[in-house]
């Protein structure tokens, strides 16, 4: 039997160890060479080496304009001592006029593997396809046969073998970003950091056991924000299917791989909702065409309207049930079921240090009675803003003429000084008897919609501050409290007027006019604020960036000519 001809394998460039002083550009080139490597043995060896090099996940620590230079150098040193790769980008090293200093932070894959084991990250097990908590594999020298042969994923007998461990894409982009975020918030400060700050600033900072650098840096006005850095190609690829109306599971999976399960679940709901809207849309179109070709029939006299209304009630109930089933299936497939039960502790959580009655270790404790007081303050502030929204609604209904002398509760909600503008021939006559009948009757509803949008935006920041003031322990508790506040306020702000017309006035014609006006104006507002203005701003930014680059190029050419 003839000897098998050996394949001509081109060796790839060696990957640098984390102790070598290698630039990020060189490491990215090594990653590119590694992806082009051929031969399983050569590739596996290179993958093992690359676990000591940086991953693609990156965050930018944005320092405040007045941050002391020694404090920035301390943060850089602390990050490096924690095993992270850092790169300082000042105004001179990057394009733009922002005077702030940026620090690009990345981590080696080995560090992220340790963090994944500590966090209990779920990965797919070879053979069974089940999700198991990730375990860092032993080094090559500790393997049973010294070579790792016969051990998929490079692990010993009896330990989990994870699918794709030898791949450069073993961790999803969203998982890398989450693990790096966790690593950054585990970096704790020492007394040296407080000595680098101005005395008056350091005196006002509460010092606790295990203060993380990100929280203390924000409180000390040293760090402005922590910004995740996108990979442009992966970012565009993740949304390509969604924006091309690809309503398949693959489109949602691409979003999940890059943005995580929370964002993917939103798009999964959006696709599910869009598909289910096809049924009432077709029936609604049929009713519209029937009434259109039969002039004697209106929406108030159509015999198809009652069955359609009953069908919409049944449709709503079925939609919720089927979405719950789909949501549970996606959570099981993604390994996020019961995630709230293991929600991490918020880095901003503070309290008194005490010995845990369960573990016996020091922990931060915040008494429930103090949180109850802060929640009472939140209730009072939210109630005051709801009163402002209710007063705005009353003013709008009076100006539109929906509230008059004979309305229910007119003694308390009728404002004659405002209602006079809606009388026949007045400025805002809804029947078109006043001046500019095409334009002015829509001014009150447009103003009401604008005030609703402004109040919602203001309360969004107020709710965030109130929820932070309540000092919830876990991220899930914080998010649930914030969602509850915003939902109650925005639902009251938006729907209190239709509820009044439907259940107090019991006027179906006024209710229909109010709903059509509010939803039409709100749709137009969203189109302008969320699509047209961002598109114009993007074009303007591209234009100014191009002009700035051309100016720099002209200056460089002039300098070379001199």
Describe what is shown at a glance.
The chain has 18 helices and 8 strands. The strands form 3 sheets. It has a 4-stranded antiparallel beta sheet.
Oligomeric state of the chains in view: single chain
Mean pLDDT: 78
Ends apart, CA distance between termini: 74 Å
Strand elements, count: 8
Order of secondary-structure elements: HHEHEEHEEHHHHEHHHHEEHHHHHH
H/I helix tally: 18
Q: List unreliable stretches of 5+ residues.
A: 1-25, 140-158
Helix/strand/pairing class, anyone? alpha+beta
How much helicity do the residues have?
55-70%
Q: Within the largest sheet, what's the order of strands?
A: 2-3-1-6
- Please tell me what the overall shape is: globular
Strand content: 5-15%
Query: Biggest β-sheet: count, sense, barrel?
Result: 4 strands, antiparallel
Please give the radius of gyration in angstroms.
31 Å
Write structural notes for this entry.
It contains 18 helices and 8 strands. Helix 10 runs antiparallel to helix 11. The termini are far apart. The strands form 3 sheets. It has a 4-stranded antiparallel beta sheet with strand order 2-3-1-6. The protein is of the alpha+beta class.
Topology:
Elements (H helix, E strand, L loop, with lengths): L23 H12 L4 H11 L8 E5 L5 H13 L2 E6 L12 E6 L1 H11 L2 E3 L6 E3 L39 H13 L5 H5 L3 H6 L8 H7 L3 E6 L3 H12 L5 H11 L1 H33 L11 H30 L17 E4 L6 E4 L2 H33 L9 H4 L2 H4 L23 H28 L4 H31 L2 H54 L1
Antiparallel strand pairs: 1-3, 1-6, 2-3, 4-5, 7-8
Helix pairs in contact: 4-5, 9-10, 10-11, 11-12, 13-16, 13-17, 16-17, 16-18, 17-18
């Amino acid at each position: 039997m003839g000897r098998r001809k050996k394949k001509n394998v081109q060796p790839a460039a060696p990957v640098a160890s984390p102790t070598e002083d290698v630039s990020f550009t060189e490491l990215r080139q090594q990653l590119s060479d590694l992806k082009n490597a051929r031969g399983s043995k050569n590739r596996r060896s290179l993958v093992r080496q690359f676990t000591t090099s940086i991953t693609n996940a990156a965050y930018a620590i944005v320092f405040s304009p007045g941050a002391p230079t020694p404090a920035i150098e301390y943060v850089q040193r602390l990050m490096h001592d924690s095993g992270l790769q850092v790169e300082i980008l000042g105004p001179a090293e990057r394009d733009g006029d922002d005077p702030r200093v940026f620090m690009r932070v990345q981590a080696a894959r080995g560090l992220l593997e340790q963090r994944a084991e500590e966090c209990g990250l779920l990965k797919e097990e070879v053979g069974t396809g089940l999700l198991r908590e990730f375990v860092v594999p032993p080094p090559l020298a500790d393997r049973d046969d010294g070579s790792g042969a016969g051990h998929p994923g490079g692990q010993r007998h009896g330990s989990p073998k994870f699918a794709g461990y030898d791949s450069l894409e073993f961790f999803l982009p969203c998982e890398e970003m989450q693990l790096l975020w966790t690593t950054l918030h585990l970096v704790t400060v020492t007394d040296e950091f407080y000595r680098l700050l101005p005395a008056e600033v350091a005196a006002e900072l509460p010092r606790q056991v295990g203060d993380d650098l990100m929280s203390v840096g924000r409180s000390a006005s040293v760090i402005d924000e922590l910004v995740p850095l996108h990979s442009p190609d992966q970012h565009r690829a993740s949304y390509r299917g969604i924006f091309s109306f690809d309503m398949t599971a693959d489109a949602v999976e691409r979003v999940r791989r890059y943005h995580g399960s929370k964002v993917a679940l939103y798009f999964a709901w959006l696709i599910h909702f869009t598909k289910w809207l096809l049924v009432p849309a077709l029936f609604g179109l049929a009713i519209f065409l029937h009434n259109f070709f039969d002039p004697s029939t209106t929406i108030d006299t159509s015999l198809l309207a009652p069955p359609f209304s009953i069908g919409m009630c049944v449709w709503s109930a079925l939609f919720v049930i089927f979405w719950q089933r789909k949501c549970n299936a996606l959570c099981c497939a993604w390994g996020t079921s019961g995630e709230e039960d293991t929600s991490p502790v918020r880095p901003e959580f503070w309290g008194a240090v005490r010995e845990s009655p369960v573990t016996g270790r020091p922990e931060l404790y915040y008494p429930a009675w103090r949180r109850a007081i802060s929640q009472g303050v939140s209730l009072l502030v939210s109630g005051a803003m709801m009163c402002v929204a209710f007063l705005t609604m009353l003013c709008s209904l009076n100006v539109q003429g929906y509230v008059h002398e004979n309305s229910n509760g007119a003694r308390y909600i009728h404002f004659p000084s405002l209602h006079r503008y809606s009388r026949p021939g007045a400025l805002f006559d809804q029947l078109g008897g006043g001046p500019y009948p095409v334009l002015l009757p829509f001014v009150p509803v447009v103003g009401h919609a604008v005030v609703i949008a402004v109040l919602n935006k203001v309360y969004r920041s107020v709710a965030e501050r109130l929820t932070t003031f309540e000092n919830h322990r876990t991220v899930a508790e914080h998010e649930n409290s914030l969602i509850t506040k915003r939902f109650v306020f925005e639902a009251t702000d938006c729907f209190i007027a239709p509820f009044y017309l439907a259940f107090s006035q019991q006027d179906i014609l006024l209710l229909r006019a109010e709903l059509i006006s509010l939803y039409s104006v709100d749709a137009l507002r969203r189109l302008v604020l969320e699509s047209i203005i961002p598109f114009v701003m993007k074009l303007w930014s591209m234009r100014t960036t191009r002009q700035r680059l051309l100016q720099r190029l002209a200056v460089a050419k002039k300098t070379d000519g001199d």
